[in-house]
Amino acid sequence: xxxxxxxxxxxxxxxxxxxxxxxxxxxxxxxxxxxxxxxxxxxxxxxxxxxxxxxxxxxxxxxxxxxxxxxxxxxxxxxxxxxxxxxxxxxxxxxxxxxxxxxxxxxxxxxxxxxxxxxxxxxx
Length: 124
Description:
Blueprint: H1 15-29, H2 41-48, H3 52-64, E1 68-70, E2 76-78, H4 82-102, H5 107-122
Antiparallel strand pairs: 1-2
């Protein structure tokens, strides 16, 4: 198993976002298994021709999302994030539903807002 990343200079997404999305997808799909040791920030930056700060920003976002975990001097690893990600998603959905209700929005209006947001983010 190996990390496979391709950064497109002409893409609309910033390089750190391309990196974050590709690592997250490979972790979700199992291409990068739980416990896989990630390259160092500096090493991956050199390999991809990116600034170290770009890779560090992607790693911070991935750690916040529970995709990777840093174990001090031992390195950065793919985390067992499935449960944590599902819990965070459920909490975000609940917070949205409660906020929509406090704003006096109907169930249908809340569902429509979610649909619009998902289409804006995921496309379609």
